[in-house]
Q: What sequence folds into this?
């Protein structure tokens, strides 16, 4: 009997092989030539599609990052605390998603619905606090004379203090960072809804008509603040208070910008320039993220901020890779020693399996954590288990007197129900964990699910058809080579 591969199977196997070789090798030559790190996002990495690049995404425990525990306070009277906590989680989730971090974790905590845990891979504690730790209500004020100031000049406009208006970020419909018209400085472009556009138009018209763009006239300026409150204004004349909250927001203040109005703005759009020092690219992006995600419904404070170093993760990766390679080597030696040629072919199929799974991890992309690596290694064991079932059935068929070719086909048919049922139960469990779990649990479930699906292809299709190719050569159809002798019990 001569075994022949069908064309559909050839196309599937060859396509998966080429796919894995392309994705797994993508960009490494580019990285080496340009002296870039071999992992992570790098400028211009090919192939890339916009901001999406093909590389292995690492979680907090592997790449380092920030772990935050947040305390909620000042709940609105009469509002359900659990609802306020969930609304805060939703706003924070929008903010951390805009950071582009891999598999962020934002989940409620605390029996009193007053805490939230946040984990961000690859994000420093300073950046996390800047984006997450602010309530982020953009407040617009005008300037009015401050009768309390006699000889002491305080704040950005000596002799004046801010006056709240009814224009806040609740009336924004969008905010986006960009370079200014000259292409030299970063700004944040604001778009107001119809109500906000009407209010902003009246404010700028009044400011312009009052001072006619005179930069020395405070009443011709409109200031934008983050989270400025009536209580802040009440304490404006306290020693040092006005100066402290008028510092740039990146160092703890609240003032964002205080421009002189050059003309009435009635189109519903505005531009925040970041004041005298201007925005950095990251600063403009962070402010736009805060405004787009909405303001938090409660006040939050950082109870604990822990910056996780990547060195621990790198050591864990090295140890895990060493353990994985050692385990794989032991499995290969066992399979070859016990099953001879079929065991060797199964080991080749395992390499195919590992290449395809790694490629899928990069393309999906899957954020790889230590728990995710555990899921991957577990799926390797299941792939080997499927091959063992096939080879044992193969031995039984040969001993029963079947020809080598017929024994291979019969072994796959007999082993398939057991392989199908065991893998299906694992897939169901993984799907439930991925749907209901979060963080490391979800990472484990996703990697295990991908691994099990590919192991089915590896054990049933690849190993089977490698045997089909090799066994077309009659010279190796001998029991000693195949690890079985006829007639032996």
A:
């Amino acid at each position: 009997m001569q075994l022949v591969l069908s064309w559909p199977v050839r196309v599937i196997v060859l396509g998966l092989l080429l796919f894995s070789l392309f994705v797994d090798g993508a960009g490494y030559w580019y990285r080496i030539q340009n002296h870039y790190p071999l992992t992570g996002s790098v400028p211009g990495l090919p192939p890339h599609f916009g901001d999406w690049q093909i590389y292995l995404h690492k979680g907090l425990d592997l790449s380092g990052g920030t772990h935050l525990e947040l305390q909620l306070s000042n709940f609105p009277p009469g509002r359900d605390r659990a609802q306020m906590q969930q609304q805060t989680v939703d706003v924070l989730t929008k903010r951390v998603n805009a950071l582009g971090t891999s598999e962020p974790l934002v989940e409620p905590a605390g029996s009193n619905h007053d805490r939230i845990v946040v984990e961000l891979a690859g994000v420093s504690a300073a950046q996390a606090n800047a984006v997450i730790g602010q309530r982020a209500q953009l407040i617009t004020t005008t300037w009015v004379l401050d009768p309390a100031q006699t000889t002491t000049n305080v704040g950005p406009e000596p002799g004046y203090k801010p006056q709240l208006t009814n224009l806040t970020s609740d009336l924004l419909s969008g905010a986006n960072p960009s370079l200014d018209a000259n292409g030299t400085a970063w700004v944040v472009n604001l778009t107001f809804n119809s109500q906000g556009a009407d209010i902003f138009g009246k404010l700028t018209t009044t400011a312009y008509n009052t001072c006619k763009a005179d930069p020395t006239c405070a009443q011709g300026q409109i200031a934008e603040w983050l989270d400025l409150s009536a209580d802040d204004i009440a304490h404006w004349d306290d020693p040092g208070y006005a100066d402290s909250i008028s510092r740039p927001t990146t160092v703890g203040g609240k003032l964002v910008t205080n421009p002189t109005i050059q003309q009435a703005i009635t189109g519903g759009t505005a531009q925040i320039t970041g004041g005298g020092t201007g925005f950095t690219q990251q600063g403009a992006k962070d402010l736009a993220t805060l405004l787009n995600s909405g303001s938090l419904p409660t006040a939050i404070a950082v109870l604990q901020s822990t910056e996780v170093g990547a060195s621990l993760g790198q050591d864990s990766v090295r140890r895990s890779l060493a353990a994985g390679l050692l385990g794989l080597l032991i499995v290969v030696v066992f399979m070859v020693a016990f099953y001879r040629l079929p065991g060797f072919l199964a080991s080749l199929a395992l390499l195919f399996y590992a290449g395809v799974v790694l490629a899928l991890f990069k393309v999906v992309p899957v954020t790889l954590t230590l728990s995710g690596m555990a899921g991957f290694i577990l799926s390797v064991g299941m792939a080997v288990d499927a091959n063992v079932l096939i080879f044992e059935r193969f031995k039984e068929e040969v001993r029963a007197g079947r020809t080598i070719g017929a024994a291979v086909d019969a072994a796959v048919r007999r082993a398939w129900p057991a392989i199908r049922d065991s893998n299906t139960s694992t897939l169901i469990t993984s799907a439930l964990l991925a749907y209901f779990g979060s963080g490391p649990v979800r990472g484990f479930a996703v990697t295990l699910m991908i691994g099990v699906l590919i192991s089915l292809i590896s054990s049933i299709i690849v190993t089977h058809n490698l045997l089909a190719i090799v066994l077309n050569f009659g010279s190796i159809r001998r029991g000693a080579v195949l690890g079985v002798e006829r007639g032996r019990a």
Observations:
- The two ends are 25 Å apart (CA to CA).
- The chain has 14 helices and 15 strands.
- The longest strand covers residues 299-308.
- The longest helix spans residues 310-363.
